[in-house]
Amino acid sequence: AQSVSQHNHHVILSEAASLELGCNYSYGGTVNLFWYVQYPGQHLQLLLKYFSGDPLVKGIKGFEAEFIKSKFSFNLRKPSVQWSDTAEYFCAVMRGATNKLIFGTGTLLAVQP
Amino acid sequence: DTEVTQTPKHLVMGMTNKKSLKCEQHMGHRAMYWYKQKAKKPPELMFVYSYEKLSINESVPSRFSPECPNSSLLNLHLHALQPEDSALYLCASAPGYAPNTEAFFGQGTRLTVV
Could you say which of 2.40.240.10, 2.60.40.10, 3.40.640.10, 2.170.150.40 is the CATH number of the domain covering A4-112? Predict the structure, then answer.
């Protein structure tokens, strides 16, 4: 089945630690890739997006992600996390020209001060 | 204006009630979405409208009935819901001329079915 997978369901880090969250998708063809963040009690916010071009994309709040087409992956990274990064992170994929946006299972990140 | 506005923010309804959720955007977007999100789960796609026509229905039960009266408005009519339908309902919009579009999300309507 076509899907979006996030293998890390729950990650606990100390402040200043580096973060990498995995995202894999199983769609062939053209895709648009996104990472969204949902802070406790708040709505979904876009962290970053990839449409084409440079596979390393930078987003808000020091986040970046790398698209590796051969691995169908779009992993999220941040060199040094802060307590305020505590949130749920969702990878999402929009397939080609369909407007169909599908979310991964989510990763709950807890950053300890 | 980059907002997607959803009303109401909270809704409590009985299983025999009929209610509607509303979503509005003024970004000129031509794709609009309804998602359902249960606690600690990802948003699940329910419906997509493209250019005011229903383009995707993810096998949603008929007790949920979407409507797109014009390009700025999206409604979700609710009737005879079950307690397990309690969730956060999210609306989103996107320019619609895929590829290379991103979706903007509203704050959601927290629905409780009693």
Answer: 2.60.40.10
